[in-house]
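Q: Sequence in, structure out?
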Amino acid sequence: MSLTVLPGGRLEGKVALITGAARGQGAAAARRFVAEGARVVAADIVDELGEKLAGELGDACVYQHLDVTDEAAWPVATARAAEAFGKLDVVVNNAGVLFFSALEQTKLADYERVIRVNQIGTFLGMRAAVGPLTEAGGGSIVNVSSVEGLAGMPYLTAYTASKFAIRGMTKVAALELGDRGIRVNSVHPGAVDTQMVTDALGGAPVDLAFVGKKVALGRVGSADEIAALVAFLASDDSSYCTGSEFVADGGATATHALKV
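A: Exactly. Output:
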């Protein structure tokens, strides 16, 4: 697969670590970052797909196995960026899982699994980024939350809890790290057709067109559209943005809950 590098890429010279990068929004972000001139450590637990992506992206990308819930694995992943590319400027905490269940039927083990990946994984990622980004003279942390980090949705107790937590942690980190030149922002995608959604709904492909019809733009989003927003937050074009929510939801949160 050939990749066209965008002229005057906004991420020229930057090195990024992206979690959950083997597929979906993470893979789209890795491709966009390389197209914008960055070098990328693509991290995931799906090794075959991750290695394949790195092969597609060539010398600008290396793959690193990373279970985001494993505290000891994080220093290894950030060190890989320094070893491969000399530094680390951007960390994108994208890895996540989606789980549907009515509140009264949600098992504690399932709730804890979602919290460990989505919330604790992001916490560990932010914490691991502080040292390398400080050494680099500053940088950007982008935490992928969700519209469920802005409002609730039935059957998503664990997921919503984790995404609200990401939103809150982002603000605290932004306040603590601003004087080091480290910006921290959260991204809040709406309905995006990715493998994560398919997996959460039992593994069979699902037509999400009916969901798209409920939002202002009349369609679901694409992983590439979210990747473009993440690239903006990683770039110096967003140099005065920190501690904020950036929403890409087709207008889902522009309405209220009154039914007509």
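The two ends are 48 Å apart (CA to CA).
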